[in-house]
Predict the structure.
Amino acid sequence: MKELELKYGCNPNQKPSRIYMQDGSDLPIEVLCGKPGYINFLDAFNGWLLVSELKKATNLPAATSFKHVSPAGAAVGLPLSETLAKIYWVDDLGELSPLACAYARARGADRMSSFGDFIALSDVCDEDTARLIKREVSDGVIAPGYTPEALELLKQKKKGNYNVIQIDPDYVPAPLEHKEVFGITFEQGRNELVIDDDFFANVVTENKEIPKSAQIDLAISMITLKYTQSNSVCYVKGGQAIGIGAGQQSRIHCTRLAGQKADNWWLRQSPQVLGLQFREGIGRADRDNAIDLYIGEEYMDVLADGVWENTFKVKPDVFTREEKRAWLDKMEDVALGSDAFFPFGDNIERAHKSGVKYVAQPGGSVRDDNVIAACNKYDMAMAFTGLRLFHH
């Protein structure tokens, strides 16, 4: 296939729209179902690059959940604990394949942002993964292949209109990439930077210990940032992104935004949230919304409005600020990556509140000493990579 006509561009008024190869060669993809749009393909291709790199870096199957050209979640296929299976709403599916575990983690870390996502998978989509995808609200999936059982399940989604894309895993793009803005063509070399163990060798803090598990989490963080709209930071724990702050003009706002998402991920594992009793027939998205309100500061307003009566079997007790802080203080060994240097130590102060122990960032700020001192204050280990990862 030389080109593919799209319904429209970023918006319905932007027509015509298509994807094609400038050299006239065949596209490296095949649409097996549905009719993907302009933004779908932007998410699909960026997501495919992300999971491909995660797979190479960790030797584990990887998945990502993309929304508006930034990942809402990214993870590798480590087994799920009983608690994670419960908060990701997959505890009824039994033991899942590694690839399905990767997507459950990628989708589950920030379920509100992942609602209506585009999925990228590093490996051939199996039946377990397809069963999980089939029941979530999603726009489509890209993978290097699909088992017959998986494809049959996915073709049943959205009355046969679900977007299923198969990509040639051997496709290698040209070393130069181009982008047109305002009728002017931009050209640059592709960002082929490889993120491996050596990436974190320059540890500049008093604490020099970054164990292998933390190096894997830092690699996941930096690879995720490589395909996240800048400015961006990413919190990672246990093989998955738990908080991504994307597209903010201020780095501290990235750190706060991502930190709040990481906090919400951890609060969902608290006894107060795990003990919530929902009414029969409440969908997963409605449960997600209710939990988000419950752990937020506005829960008192929700109680006052009587919204709980339509959602919960039993009126939940207020999850007090003190109780939440006590639970958050139990979160530890979190890894944090930044796509550019931290200009002030306030980012480290905020990261500490979300259990960050390991940090990776390019370094190069005139206030590096201040940032290092903040890490030393909390016995964090921080590596300077010397390499920026802006993505636009």
